[in-house]
Amino acid sequence: MKANLSNIKNIIFDLGRVLLNLDFDASIKAFQQLGSDGEVLDHKNAYADPIFYKLEIGKITPTEFRSGIRKLLQNEQLTNEQIDEAWYAMILDIPEHRVKKVQELSKNYNLYLFSNTNQIHIDRLLTEFKTQHGIDFPSLFKTVYYSHEIHDRKPEVSAYEKVIALSGVNPEETLFIDDLENNIVAAQKAGLKTFWLQNGMEMTELF
Q1: Is there a contact between 206 and 194 (Cβ–Cβ < 8 Å)?
Q2: What DSSP string runs through the chain?
Q3: What is the pLDDT of residue 42?
Q4: Is 66 exposed, middle or buried (0-12, 13-18, 19+ CB in 10 A)?
Q5: What is the rounded distance in angstroms from the CA atom of residue 11 to the CA atom of residue 105?
Q6: Is there a contact between 115 and 12 (Cβ–Cβ < 8 Å)?
Q7: How many Å apart are CA 202 and CA 168, to the nearest integer?
Q8: pLDDT average, residue stretch 175-179
């Protein structure tokens, strides 16, 4: 299936599962090994604790997050490194073919990134991306918008409205690509054109 690019001048990409490969279960398992009895962080209730939401909208610092994780896992002996490693375990890679597709698209469209993420993930991802690809990740886009920096997150309609205002794009000329239906529905409410990248689809094949 191809994305409809009629009258499109701007493309806003989600990060996880659109550009970045993820394994949410890896962090669940890693946290369980650090002290959870399985009830706090299981497959059904993963990341339901408010501490994850607060980190994602920049309401707490990484230091406060780590302190909260120690309490959540009932293990005050955990080091910052152990917590960060477990939290980052879900982050895999951004494949070369997706990087090349973004670079190709940037010749004809204004490209943006809008991701629900956090400082711990992004700081390390940016370093690893530069090592792997030899370029700075933000250089692929006109502007990047991270939830912890704009203090709002998908699927809140206000988050999309904030990105639209900050970027200055015309929503009717802007395609938003995301892997979650809730995020797509909210983007449509904000006036954006959308493409829902469902399981089994590959971003590079949309264009």
Answers
A1: no
A2: -----TT--EEEE-SBTTTB-B-HHHHHHHHHHHT--SSSS-TTTTT-SHHHHHHHTTSS-HHHHHHHHHHHTT-TT--HHHHHHHHHTTB----HHHHHHHHHHTTTSEEEEEE---HHHHHHHHHHHHHHHSS-GGGGSSEEEEHHHHT--TT-HHHHHHHHHHHT--GGGEEEEES-HHHHHHHHHTT-EEEE--TT--GGGG-
A3: 58
A4: buried
A5: 9
A6: no
A7: 28
A8: 98
* pLDDT tens-place string over residues 60-71: 999 999 999 999
Mean pLDDT, the chain, whole residue set: 94
Which residue did the predictor score with more confidence, 189 or 40? 189
Alpha carbon distance 110, 131 (integer Å): 25
pLDDT of residue 166: 98
| CA neighbours closer than 13 Å in the CB half-sphere of residue 27 | 19
User: What does the pLDDT read at residue 47?
Assistant: 75
pTM of the model: 0.95
Q: What is the pLDDT of residues 158-169, one digit of tens each?
A: 999 999 999 999
Q: Which whole-number Å values give the CA distances from 47 to 31, 52, 75, 196, in the listed order?
A: 11, 6, 17, 23
* Contact between 152 and 176 (Cβ < 8 Å): no
Distance of CA 55 to the CA centre of its chain: 13
Q: How far apart are the C-alpha atoms of 153 and 195, rounded to whole Å?
A: 18
